[in-house]
Model the fold of this input.
Amino acid sequence: MSRQIIIDYWVEKAREDLASARDNLKSGRYQNAVRDAYFACFHVFSSVLLNEGKTFKKHKEVRSMLHRDFIRTKKIDRSWGKHYDWLFDNRHKADYRPLIQFDTDQVKEIVEESEAFVKEMAGFLKEGSHARKHPDTGSV
Done:
């Protein structure tokens, strides 16, 4: 199986995760929306890593590569790292901490930011590995 087929699969999986996050948000299932938003970002960034020839075995390795190979090198805006970190930490809480609650507006914002992250990383895949500015801040 070619690398491009797998990359395309992960990007499509990210889009499906976003659709699920939106549905869960609309239905008031905020923990599930947070989890789905995380997996959308995880899957699309996994495709970016694969495109660069990088592999991983654990979710924390993906997070580390995001910061080490993309944020520190200014390939992508540091705000994406903050977003991914929030999702990473809170997805874990949503899955493993009993009675964790998320605020409606907070989850809405997270889903929207995750949509922007997926769009940004998909654009990154199309355009190649050069620095990308955050659409809201304009910074690298």
The chain has a mean pLDDT of 90.
